[in-house]
Amino acid sequence: MPHNASLFVEDKIRQLREQLHHHNYRYHVLDDPDIPDGDYDRLMNELKQLEADHPWSITPDSPTQRVGGAPLKSFGQIRHEVPMLSLDNAFSSEDMADFNRRVNERLKDTSTVEYICEPKLDGIAVSLMYEQGVLITGATRGDGTTGEDITQNIRTIVSIPLKLQGAGWPERLEVRGEIYMPRQGFDQLNERAEKQGEKVFANPRNAAAGSLRQLDSSVTASRPLTMYCYGIGVYDGDNAPETHSDMLNRLGEWGLRINPEVEVVESVKGCEDYYRKLESRRETLGYDIDGIVFKVNPVKLQQQLGFVARAPRWAIARKFPAQEAMTVLKDVEFQVGRTGTITPVARLEPVSVGGVVVSNATLHNMDEIRRLNICVGDSVIVHRAGDVIPKIVKRAGNIARLNNAKAIAPPKVCPVCGSKVDKVTIKVGNAEKEGTALVCVGRLTCKAQREQAIIHFSSRKALDIEGLGSETVALMVSEGLLASVADIFALSYEEIVALEGFAELSARNLIAAIEKAKTTTLQRFIFGLGIPEVGEETARLLAETLGSIEKLAIARREVIQLIEGIGETGAGCIQDYFADNHNRQVLDKMMDKHQVQAVGPDKYSSDFVVKIAFDKLISNIPVYGVGLGIAKRIASKCRDFSELYALSSDQLKEVVRNQRAFDHLLKALPAQKDRLITLEAYLLEEGLHWRTRQNLTDAALTKVNKAKKGALKGKKFVITGKFEGVSRDGLKALVREHDGVIAGSVSKNTDFLLAGEKAGSKRQKAEALGIPVIGLDQFNEMVAAGQSSDRRGSQQETSFKNIDHEDED
Ligand code: IVH
Question: Looking at the annotation, which residues are catalytic?
Fold first, then answer.
């Protein structure tokens, strides 16, 4: 019996290990997990438990054995059985042609040579030894002959298999490749370090090197390292691969990571094309590369070519031009952005960085200047990455500061309009880290802010007005033609054609582009307003949940905050924006006078209405210690804020059932009373109050709830005024449910005006046009009549989940 039991356990352990190896491979190598993380954790825990109960069964290749052992005192040494060589470099197409010529000459072969192209990763070269498919050691390159034994650390890298998969691997296999840190992981690591006041790494390569050099492998385990394999050393077995690409394919089949960018090309011309292609995509790869490695693909030819000194004759590294250069900081100017943020910009002695002449670089803010410890006159190192604005990375360490170097002082007033400058706290990067920014308080009285706001409004991702770029806007602002975004729509042909740089055709084109931009999507329009914290994504969320600019303009912070993805700060900025008189005027001018139409999505999220629930609002107040659980208990006891404020403290304590949360509530509720009661009034007014939504089914519309589809078919309704106990949205939803049509304004095509209390201009207009004005009772009767005239329709219950919002009038 015990014998059988232990057999069973061993089988189970083996099975769990295989499953975990498989899922590890799917997740870390293929980037394509096939089970949820929770299931993986469960399998891992099961294995850990079995191994803890049966410690004799633990093997070094078990997935539980990645982090283990006490910190080392120092690293041991490992001698490479096959030396780890380095590569010759090429810096130009000519160098490549020379390399190709040397290869051809040596091979005494006139046919073209097949090459394999591989990105040259900027990481740490390592060697992994697998015996019988199990990872035995891991070592750094060291001096090429002897490296450091970093086995413990290598084992923590989850994308490196502890055991090779599949079959056919040789008895001993030495895999070589580059360990690196993907940029995203690097950024997160540095953000974390900054938050905790620790040292940040200068670049992903240093971070990878530092992480591998840890004597305590649990530190390495916490670092986002991974590896691409690019070659082999020892290969003790039959059937050695005939080409380098074959060998990489095999390594891939055995569960090792191979760079998907690797490509085989026919000739040195193919190498050139590959180089250009990858150079242009360099910034999108997600990891740093410093060039391309080209290798003769057939192993037989590699052997014929052999080595010279410490590098193979069959491979070369073509390096990208340097992305950094040294130059002199000539001056620092302060620029004012759209939201008033004042940014220091470095004026540099022009210098070529990776083939592009750079004369300006961003300095972000005063914190950055302090961090870099730079003065005007200093020699600095500039870095350029892709299309990103170049930045100063540091002072040139080996050049002393000049006597006449000048400290950089922050501006006391706005350099453009002379307004006061405020210091505000800002979030830096994704981190919760805070920094200070200087902000001009002049807002739209500041020419720079006005100009930037208009440029943003007209830009490609906003209203996309072709021909109204930054230079034209700057000119128009200077000429006094544009003071706000609304003025764009008042521009005349005569005004434009008179401007420098414009001719008849270009002026006509711009007028046409402006006319076209008058009808735009709600998302573009909201984004274009340039509300602080409202980027494209937030604009989309707002458009999809609120559906119209009018609704957004009156939306309260507490309500906006209920939209998933918009936080407290964003919601506050939105409310502030629309509370501002000047902004309201500009909007009114655009919508009313110039008839700009920001068209909301056809069907916008009805979930949002469902989300406005009393418990959600309570949990959002916010009160320390009161989460959704306690909020739900409170909401089950009282139905709205008025009822909540009517509770005695004993009653409240009873529902809350948590002393600490109760204490906090007792402090917070009186202080928030005004705000919450006003919020409730707003929700009632807008038909967003949970109790009104209840009333809609309970009272006013019970008769029509069971009405059949088609009752109002094709009838065009305009709804105006206030209705007791019913929201306009609810009525609109009902009209649509019965296949009626809702229009925003009265015209001769309107069939009925459904008017409640305080129906104003719409009623007058309807009466003037002779359009029937009906009340709620008549409306209900109409729906009910439709019910008897169309008996084929199916039963349709009105449900609040189906209610969607439309523009309020
Ligand atoms: S092959 C004999 N392939 O570049 C061939 N090296 O100076 C030796 N490297 O130390 C290396 N990506 O760390 C090769 N795809 C790649 C590589 C690569 C990066 C590094 C490696 C080596 C250095 C060569």
Answer: 120
pTM: predicted TM-score of the whole model, two decimal places: 0.51
- Is beta strand 226-236 parallel, antiparallel or unpaired with respect to 741-742? unpaired
Q: What are phi and psi of 466, to 5 degrees?
A: -70, 135
Q: List alpha helices for 112-222, DSSP H.
A: 151-155, 183-195, 204-212, 217-221
Report the distance separating Cα 127 and Cα 129, nearest Å: 7
**Annotation: CATH topology of 523-604:** DNA polymerase; domain 1 (1.10.150)
DSSP state of 267: S
Q: Do the beta carbons of residue 83 and residue 163 sit within 8 Å?
A: no
Hey, what are 408's tokens? 């950089």
Distance CA 283, CA 323 (A): 12
β partners of residue 173: 130, 235
Measure the CA dihedral 754/757/761/766, to 10°: 30
Q: Is 482 exposed, middle or buried (0-12, 13-18, 19+ CB in 10 A)?
A: buried
531 lines ligand 1 (CB under 6 A): no
Best mutation site among 178, 226, 319 for ligand 1 pocket (most ligand atoms within 8 Å of CB): 178
Q: Which secondary-structure segment (H or E) carries 41?
A: helix 37-53
Q: How does pLDDT run across 480-499, given as a tens digit for each residue?
A: 999 999 999 999 999 999 99
Q: How far is the CA of 219 from the centre of ligand 1 (A)?
A: 26
Check whether domain 3-65 has CATH 3.50.50.60, yes or no: no
Q: Which residues pair with 348 in a beta bridge?
A: 329
413 alpha carbon – ligand 1 mean position (Å): 54
pLDDT digits (tens, 9 = 90+) for 34-90: 888 889 989 999 999 999 988 888 888 899 988 867 778 888 999 999 999 899 999
124 φ, ψ to 5°? -120, 125
Contact 400, 378 (CB under 8 A): no
Number of CB atoms found within 10 A of residue 45's CB = 11
- Could you tell me which of 685, 691, 645 has the C-alpha nearest to residue 666? 645
Q: Strand pairing partners for 459?
A: none
The one-letter code for the residue type at 236 is D
Q: How far is CA 445 from CA 340, 484, 585, in A?
A: 11, 10, 15
Confidence class of residue 430 from pLDDT cuts 50, 70 and 90? very low
Per CATH, the number for 454-517 is 1.10.150.20
pLDDT tens track for 345-370: 999 999 988 767 899 998 989 989 99
Q: Provide the strand spans (E) within 216-288.
A: 226-236, 263-265
Asked if the model's pLDDT at residue 300 lies above 50, the reply is yes
The proportion of the chain whose per-residue pLDDT surpasses 70, expressed as a percent, equals 89
Contacts for 302 with CB less than 8 Å, ≥ 6 apart: 244, 295, 296, 312, 314
Q: 325-437, superfamily in CATH? A: Nucleic acid-binding proteins (2.40.50.140)
Separation of 808 CA from ligand 1 center, angstroms? 65
pLDDT computed for residue 5 by the predictor:
56
Q: Is the CB of 278 under 6 A from ligand 1?
A: no
Per DSSP, 600 falls in state P
| Poorest-pLDDT segment among 46-55, 515-524, 740-749 | 740-749
Return the closest-CA partner of residue 137 out of 75, 209, 214, 222. 75
Contact 367, 338 (CB under 8 A): no
Amino acid at 15: Q
Span 89-154+165-319 CATH architecture? 2-Layer Sandwich (3.30)
Q: Give strand pairing partners of 226.
A: 180
What token pair was written down for 196? 């905790």
Phi-psi region of 495 (alpha: psi -120 to 50; beta: other; left: phi over 0): alpha
Whether 125 contacts 99, CB under 8 Å: no
CATH class of 706-785: alpha beta
Q: Is 231 in the pocket of ligand 1 (CB under 6 A)?
A: yes
Span 691-726, pLDDT tens digits: 655 433 333 333 333 333 346 788 888 998 888 777
